[in-house]
Amino acid sequence: MSAGANKIALSLREVHKSFGEAHIIRGVSLDLSEGERHAFIGPNGAGKSTLFHLISGQFKPSSGEILLGQQPIGGLAAERINRLGLARSFQITNIFPKLSVYENLRLGVMQRFGLQYTLWRPVSGFSRVRELTEQLLEQVRLTRHRDTLGGELSYSEQRSLEIGMTLASDPKVLLLDEPMAGMSREETDYTVDLLRELSAGRTLMIVEHDMDVVFSLCDRISVLVYGQVVATGTPEEVRSNAQVQEAYLGTEVNV
Ligand SMILES: Nc1ncnc2c1ncn2[C@@H]1O[C@H](COP(=O)(O)OP(=O)(O)O)[C@@H](O)[C@H]1O
Ligand SMILES: [Mg+2]
Fold this sequence. Notes:
The chain has a domain at 8-94 and 170-249: Rossmann fold (3-Layer(aba) Sandwich), CATH 3.40.50. The protein is 36% helix and 24% strand.
């Protein structure tokens, strides 16, 4: 954790979400410190993606509070939450396959400045956009692919591009939903390294199934089972928690 730790970046207070009769998120409370890297693990259907949708504004909580720093954000529109400093990626890769890598990133940057209609904007605006797009290209290590179409990148490069687009708004808090899903061991290692770099100075919340990744990347872990956090702690604490072993980890992890 970076200096300035213990200032709270994100708080969940008794957050609930029901879809009709189905009570999916059942009272989640959690504080994330600034600079913390926090993993969510838990079985399929536990509610991890739903929780991310609630935080990023795709869904409104049925009850409870979500705060970004001091600011209540529960129920605000996704775009508003993004402007307040929180960005997220989705479980499914979300890029523009027919646009080049550069154009994809530039779109992200333009959105940050609200430049949907660029034709009548002053040239000074463009050079700032260019500069930031170049920076992002380098940060996600795709400079050599700047003119490659998004759809022609390898799978893991597409995910790097997507992470770049997520970073275009320069978020304080970054939510990534299974960014390494479907990657080879080598691609996973590469992406973990990239994420370590890119999350520096930010707060990271990540859903990830690969225990090696979780244990090596994250400061703390929360285990979500049937919409409730059954344990939160350091990797060591979670690893040795009997309830967690029973509920989720089974024999997959050496304990
Ligand atoms: N929009 C929705 N309407 C109804 N049920 C939903 C909706 N979104 C998710 N669910 C349900 O919520 C539960 C948790 O899903 P999800 O958050 O995707 O789990 P996870 O990401 O942990 O695998 C599942 O039972 C799923 O069917
Ligand atoms: Mg999910």
